[in-house]
Amino acid sequence: MISKNKIKYLRSLKLKKIRQKYDNFTVEGDKIALEILQTRNVEIETIIATEDWKNQHFNQSLRNQNEIEVATEKDFKQFSNLSTPSSVFVVVKKLPISWDEVIIKKNFSLYLDGIQDPGNFGTILRIADWFGIPYIFCSEKCADLYNHKTIQSSMGAFLRVKVMYLPFDEVFDKCDEMPFYGTILEGKNIFEENNYKKGIIVIGNEGKGISSEILNKITHQILIPKGENGGAESLNAAVATGIVCAILSNNRFG
User: What are the Cα distances from residue 191, in Å, to 194, 217, 218, 231?
Assistant: First the structure.
């Protein structure tokens, strides 16, 4: 059975500084846990599950299943990040990510300028995964990729989309021959262009939009037009990301 010290350690992983110290993060829930346990390039530190979960999934082709530690539902309530704990909890080593210039220049990428809500961040990961966008670059003001809310809302997309925290100027310098797209109110109607080239799509902060220092380097300013009777002041950052990615990554363009 799981020890009190182990429970204390697992609970501490809710804190970013502790995750950074041990270079790991946590995952909960059947779907994401099973996907991780069937992914080869992921290093597992710990698998914790209820006896029922272990018995139910024992015959599946799971990695390290002989190392599953059994915990009770009462134990889970002490370290789970969820209001209603799941039956499986996995501690995973952080994923190694590197810059691949060939892949980046052949695809659209996202640059997140201060996306602070972990739920939005996770949803944007999911959107990128859906449209086959392999890289997301983040400013230092962005939410933590390994925050449990980001991981949960990404629905496993973090396993396929590479996330790197880099200053915008570094990305701009490395991709200086590519277009940089950003949505602003004074931009050109996104539906009026039909020749979008592969480039970097910049998504601004939920409340402030794209920062002025980055805005000055946007090469293609675009606008998602409001409907004729539209009344909302702005779109949610993740919703706007989905619209832009759907249009720019369409097969007819670029």
Answer: 7, 22, 18, 20
Per-residue pLDDT of the chain (254 residues; tens, 9 = 90+): 789 999 999 999 999 999 999 999 999 998 999 898 888 788 999 999 999 998 888 665 565 455 789 999 999 999 999 999 999 999 999 999 999 999 999 999 999 999 999 999 999 999 999 999 999 999 999 999 999 999 999 999 999 999 999 999 999 999 999 999 999 888 899 988 878 899 999 999 998 999 999 999 999 999 999 887 777 777 899 999 999 999 998 754 44
**Do 105 and 88 share a domain, yes or no?**
no
Give the chain's domain count.
Answer: 2
Asked if 12 and 79 touch (Cβ cutoff 8 Å), the reply is no
Q: In this structure, are 78 and 106 located in the same domain?
A: no
* Dist. CA 164–CA 137, nearest whole Å: 5
Strand order in the sheet with 180-189: 162-165, 135-138, 109-113, 200-204, 180-189, 220-223
Which CATH number belongs to the domain containing residue 203 in this structure?
A: 3.40.1280.10
143 with 197, same domain: the answer is yes
Query: Which of 93, 120, 145 is where one domain is finished?
Result: 93
Q: Which domain holds residue 74?
A: 4-93
Pair 106, 89 in one domain: no
